[in-house]
């Protein structure tokens, strides 16, 4: 009779010995055995479907096609809202002998750059400068406005948005960026909740509706409002394509496939001036309207994506949509010519056993309950914000303040496009050699050095050298400023691009849309600083640059805390994201004491470190007395021969707690 109760006790003790030791001295409330293969998409599911086969390659190619059109839309502001050169042909002052001095549009104080000569007018032979109030400079009935951007007319010249109405141009620029920021945030959450494919289709449909409506705007208010919604759904389109592309690829192809899309977007930026030139002098309609229609109409080619582009299989499995996953896996296997019935891994058989489970969705808010994941995302958000924000500082420093508007436009636009191409070319070998974290850290250090040298070294040149030869001093100062600006624009663009990709790799599939949306929205805030500085006449420009320079130093420190995701599978669940901990930069020597959490099993267990007394109390698994009784309960320790602590057990109210 005594053997009956002893057998369960012995069996329970044996199972307890086989389980990994819990953390913090507490046993988890319940242990559910996860599926063996389905959570490991890159290691098990994708190889069973033929790896990076024909199906995946076709879909990745389909994500590249819209990248060119997205480049058109993102840089359309440079043409639709470009500032013209202007000459007053009919002044308001009658009986005055007017000749125009150096008055060129933009003529209001809010649009003059730093160091631009103050415009002046000659009235009855007397030279009168134009003050910041803009009183004399706007005393004109009729302006002759000339564009140098390939168009004969745009929004500014259509509605005479000069002088007292110039602020509306900045509002129009805000509208697209602010719409993009909201779009990244909202559509990122929706992509995690309803899927990537619905967000893609909805974004394409409304992008066509609002984009074409912009071309038929009858005032600047309508134009700005419609541009907000165009930016909103353009962000949803960009985000969903980014997610689908990265979730289709195997680890070693993720970065290269993403960079191809980046090249195509830069190609759209380079081709845009030619497209604008082709739309010039359209006979039946204003050429800026024709340009807007030409930019939006190619998105009609994405309408067949409703039927030919499937949902992300990775997202379906991560959110337990197993019935839809089964049908899609059979379709992918058929396209890749793989026989799933004879597949030795048993993925399909395991999927059959999970069909009864209901879908389970996760919101980005769950990120706040993690210990490591939210920190990684916040660090990348700050990096993205800093990269795009300081990029404008370098671009502004590179411009010649005495150059005309047309020259400034061409220098700014084509230089930015050329630097973007050089950045994409440099990122590929740099990331292949140094990894994601090493490459991001290197480019951030270069950005910080370029910023600090530009702010500090140029002042020293002006103060302590060449005091008498002012011409040579100014020339040398200008050349150094341009050199540091180009280096800074190059490295800051690399930081921004790599931060976005980094986030997509370390964020779990269940919240990848929300995490990527946060980083892209942060990038939008960085880009928003450019029109804000223009609206305030570049006042506070030096302080603006100083703040972002300080942020680069902070980012360098925080980047050391990030993990290295190169050649690693994408995390699927929040627990997988928590297991992505920082790896040591230097390898351990033989005989040295290893750091904690160096083995994969330890990192997986570390993700459950939130099972603390407070957490157990909240879930009903323990009482507060457990937490307070630990200090008073005797403990036992076991040491190895070397003196290293290898086990620790505690008994509380008859329950053995071990670590």
UniProtKB/TrEMBL annotation:
Membrane-related topology note: Multi-pass membrane protein
Stated name of the protein: Major facilitator superfamily (MFS) profile domain-containing protein
Keyword presence, Transcription regulation: no
Organism, scientific name: Umbra pygmaea (Eastern mudminnow)
Region span, Disordered: 1-29
UniProt entry tagged with the keyword Transmembrane: yes
Chief place of localization: membrane
Pfam families assigned to the protein according to its UniProt record, in alphabetical order: Sugar_tr
Domain named Major facilitator superfamily (MFS) profile: residues: 59-567
Keyword vocabulary terms for this entry: Membrane, Transmembrane, Transmembrane helix
Membrane-spanning residues: 59-76, 165-187, 199-220, 226-244, 256-278, 290-309, 373-391, 411-433, 440-462, 482-504, 516-535, 541-562
Localization per record: Membrane
GO cellular component, one term: membrane
Superkingdom, natural source: Eukaryota
SUPFAM superfamilies: MFS general substrate transporter
